[in-house]
Amino acid sequence: MNQPERFVIDGLPPSSNHGYKQGRRHVYKDIEVAAWQEWVERLALAQRVIPPQRWEHKRIHMICTFAGINHKRDVTNSVKYLEDAIARALGFNDGYVDWAEQRRVKGRQVQTVVTLEEIE
Questions:
Q1: 49 beta partners
Q2: What's the CATH number where 93 sits?
Q3: pLDDT of residue 16
Q4: Fewest beta carbons within 10 Å, which of 37, 71, 83, 99?
């Protein structure tokens, strides 16, 4: 059984409401969203527990805690790009996230904390 992994990210993820742009012939991911995801992938790899846990083919509970945010922000729109970046960094298919939980907490520092736990 994997031990939980926790990742701390300064700031908040981009909203999935504004992550794609319409081109002349197709829809594409906004360049700022793609850059943010690459940054989160690097942070996740740098913050991994040692030895690294293997998450592929495991049932996963993902907890996203958003601190210091305005009550009007729709936190469910903040999860998709975050989930994709963490899954890509750790090498698992995000379809194995059986349970995703979003929490909003008070705080002076705006940050996002992601915790992955294996479901037995």
A1: none
A2: 3.30.1330.70
A3: 85
A4: 71
Q: What is the mean pLDDT of residues 84-98?
A: 92
What's residue 42's pLDDT? Answer: 96
Predicted structure pTM score: 0.86
Asked if residue 93 has pLDDT above 80, the reply is: yes
Residue range(s) defining the domain that contains residue 82? 5-118
Lookup: tokens for 103: 């929490």
Q: How many domains does the chain have?
A: 1
Smallest Cα–Cα separation from 57: which of 85, 92, 32, 29? 92
Q: Name the burial class of residue 116, with classes exposed (0-12), middle (13-18) and buried (19+) by CB atoms within 10 angstroms of its CB.
A: buried
**β-strand pairing of 20-22 with 60-67:** unpaired
Maximum Cα–Cα distance across the chain:
48
- Residue 64 CA from chain centroid, whole number: 7
Distance linking the first and last C-alpha atoms of the chain: 8
